[in-house]
Every structure is written in C-alpha cells, then in structure tokens.
Amino acid sequence: MTGRAHLALAAAILVAVASTAAPSVRAASPAASLTLVGQNSVGSRGMNAALTLAGSCAYVGSRSDAAPQVLDISNPASPQVVGQMTAHTGSTPRELRAIPTNRELVVLNYAINGGPNGLDIYRWTADCRSPKLTGHYDFGSRVPHEFYLWQDPQRPARFLAYVTMFASAGNALNVVDVSNPAAPSLEGGWSAPSSYGYAPLHSIALTPDGRTSYLSLWTGGLVVADSSDFATAAGSPSLRLLTSAGARFKTPPGNVHSAVPVPGRSLVITTDERYPMPYGQGCPFGPAHVVDVSNPAQPAALATMSIAENDPTACSAAGSGTWTSHNPTLTSHLALISWYSGGLQVFGLDDPANPAPLASARPSGVTPTLRDIQLGTTASMTWSYPVISGGLIYVADINQGLLVYRYQGPHQDEIQGVGFAEGNSNLTASTTVATATPVVAATPTPPGVVAPVARPKPDSRLPIVVAALLIVTLAAATVWRRRRT
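Request: output the structure for the sequence above.
Response:
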C-alpha cells in the first residue's frame, strides 16, 4: 500500500469513528451515589411519618396514633431510640419541626379517630433527648394537615407556623406565632377566593424573607402569593394572590402536593402525590416538576422529573406500591425528593429544562409491625422531607424507619457544606464536612446502598483510534523515506 493510500485509509477510519456513538457519551449523567451511613428501624413499628432534627437528636412522627420517637444521632452510623413524647389517642402526630436555637419542638396532631387537633410545643434545657410539653394550640374540631416553619430574618426570635388545613372547614391557612412556646397565638388566616373553585390548601412554602409564598392547592394547582403582611407583622394580615385562577400551574389528572423554592433561583419544585386505586388516581403515578416562577403571574413548567415506574406503560407491572413523588428538600443545584415506593431520589438542576437523575436509594430489610394498607406492599416507602444536617441526608421511611445517607456526586459540596436544611422551613446553617464513618457494605451490596446512575462506559472506539493513528504514522514514515531517496 502506498503512503497516500495509508493516509486515505487512516482518514476514513477517523471520520467513521468520530461519527459513531458520540451522542451517548455526551448524554451520560455524571456518576453519583447515595451510601447508607446508618439506620434505625424505630422498633420496626412501621407507620413512621415526619422527621426533624435538633443538635444530636432526631424526632420521628407517626401516621397512626403512636407517640413521636426521640433518637440520639450523635453517631450517625448508629442512631438509637432514647425516648418518646406524648401520644394522643385517636390523633396522628403527623408533622414535626424543631427550632434548635430556641430549644423548641412543634408537633402537629390531627384526628384520625376522634382525637384532638392541635400543635403540641415542647422545650428542653440542656438535653434535646428530654423535651417537655410546654404549650398547646387547639384547633378544636378543625383538622390541620401540614405546616411550614418560618423564622423572621429581621427579628430572629420570631417564629411563625403556617398551618394548612387542606379540606377542613374555615380558613384554609392559619398562621400561628410559636415564638413563645407556652403561649402560641393566632396571627391571622386566609382562604382561596371562590373564583378558584375547588382549591384546598395542602401545603405552603415561603421565600427566606417571608414575603412570597407558594401555595399547593392540590387539584387547584400552584399559585404564587404576596405574604408580606405576615412577614412584617402588619395588622389584619392576609395573602394577596399574584397568580390568577386562569394562569395556575396544574398537572391533570394529578395535583400539586408540595411546592418548594430552589435557593437563589426563580424556580420551584412541585410534587404530585397520587395514591393507588381505589384510594387515589393510581397509575400513572405522580412525577415531580420544575416550574419557572420568575413571573409570579404566570408560573411556567420547564421539565418533569420521574422514575421508571411513572411511565404509564410500566407502572401497572411495577407491583403493589405507591410510585409517587412526595416531599422535596433542595439546594441550588440538587433536588432531594422522597418518592414513597421509589425511595429517595436525587436530581441535578444545572439545566432546569433538563433535570438529570443522579442517584437513588430504595431501602429494605425491615418488616414493619404495622403497614398502611392504602400504600401497597413494597419494602421502601420513603416519605418525609429529607433533612440535611452535618453534610449528611436524613429521611424517614414509613416502613424502614430513620435512614442516614451520604451523597457523592455533582454538587456534593452543596450538601457537605450545610449544617441544617429542610424543605418545610427556612431554617438553615453552615458546617464543615461530616466525619461519621459509613457502614461498611457487605457483599452482596446491602439494601439501601445504591448507585444507580451508570458510569460512562469505556469508549469502545479507542482500539480503532489507536490503529488509525498507527496507520497515519506508518504512512507518514513511508512518504518521508521516499522523499529522502
């Protein structure tokens, strides 16, 4: 073969190689993982609900009328149950928020079988493992559902609980001042105008300054509101809607369960909770969405975040479970979302129009004493807002108890540098990287240690490229020798 023929062949090979497989390499997600650091089954009781943290303590609520549990997390690799709080027969301690700087804990109880509806407020002195019931706010026969805890950045000793009443009668929102645990007081309330039709307020989240709020009106969609009256302690406070009834973001046939703002960006992450039939809409189960709220008058969907079981063609074969998004906790570029049977999911938000699935964990191994029959039989039933503390991720699973994860991957610094963050409050803190030693994974990999995102495969074109380069070298050498002679 002549030198020119060698060069022509090499060029043809390089062109062919350059034109193949490149898109799949560029599209590959960066490698990421969630590693199980520690777990406590909370007595394998099942029916676990909300989670909150304060210092070296974690507090886990219940979907039944069992007492909230107190866990010592001073060693995140080995959380231990060390106590419990007050139980109310016939009421579920469904939602909990801690105020570490105030040594205060707020527990929302609502009636499931004739029990009381209200907020229990606890305090402790030096030991977060021994909170004492100090105050109570009574809603009477009205049933609260969730609440967002807001600390006033202008007056740091002022704390408001924005309590949503969902489908209960009366005001859809009640704002309770819990700054004084012994004497909580009502600041004011709000309900959606009749022009919005059926729009029960399921949950609410606020910007850090408290002046803008995001209302999850279930099938009534997402609405943005001006909440500066409450933030500034104005007389006769109320919300002023910034989104008209016709401009709401909706997800038919689903709903807007939660809507949490992304820190420092004009974005909100919404979730769409759909229970299995006959308790809810069933298949297809609800994904999550990225919504642009730069124009509060016109929230605009940018993208959908989903797992395999959210595909309508796949969910019917997924088994008896609840494959739906639930509660998000966010950093500037990461969305940590509890997903019931789908476990804990992590998505990257670098390009909000194309969120990237990064990692997930579907815990198992615990057989709970009590299950919620509405939800199915999957081992994983991850439910609470994830809580970031000391660079680790804590989350409560209905069946599996308290789980502690370490995230490694893109933007891991946004988690490692966080002392405290949760999706249902504006409380934040900074810290250094946590030093807890992860549990050593056995072989085979134990449940809960998951790194599902495939790493980019070695480029199979490399041997061909090497061969082409050798041909080029040979051809060049042949041409050089001939010119010499």
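The chain is about 10% helix and 35% strand.
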